[in-house]
């Protein structure tokens, strides 16, 4: 499995264009990536850097994807299927 950094340095997974992120500005928007396990799993890791909800569309229902969802749940994320999409969101617990 490749890291997100590797994918970005090498043009992603069969992406037509290279994505280069520079500067200190917040990112917003969407990128269409072919639905395959090898493109989805690095996006799970990248979602750890996000503060809001992450929606991944056209995700294949594979055992590796389910295992990654379980790992994210174990570190405090809500990971659920919405049709063929995945919704990932970090739950922040209020101090008692």
Low-confidence stretches: none
Gyration radius from CA atoms, angstroms = 14 Å
Termini distance?
Answer: 39 Å
Total strand segments: 3
Most strands sheet: 3 strands, antiparallel
The global form is globular
Provide the helix percentage: 25-40%
Give the mean pLDDT. Answer: 77
Spatial order of the strands in the main sheet? 1-3-2
Give, in order, the helices and strands: HHEHEE
- Total of helices: 3
Query: Oligomeric status of the shown chains?
Result: single chain
Beta-strand content: 15-25%
Classification by helices and strands:
alpha+beta
Task: Supply the key terms.
3 helices; three-stranded antiparallel β-sheet; globular; 96 residues; alpha+beta
In short:
With 96 residues, this protein is an alpha+beta fold. The chain has helices at residues 4-9, 37-47, 63-74; strands spanning 54-56, 77-82, 85-90.
Task: Chart the SSEs and their pairings.
Elements (H helix, E strand, L loop, with lengths): L3 H6 L27 H11 L6 E3 L6 H12 L2 E6 L2 E6 L6
Antiparallel strand pairs: 1-3, 2-3
Structure description:
- The protein is globular and about 35 Å long.
- The protein contains three helices and three strands; from the N terminus they run H-H-E-H-E-E.
- The chain starts with a helix and ends in a 6-residue tail after the last strand.
- It is of the alpha+beta class and 96 residues long.
- It has a three-stranded antiparallel beta sheet, covered by helices on one side.
- The mean pLDDT is 77.
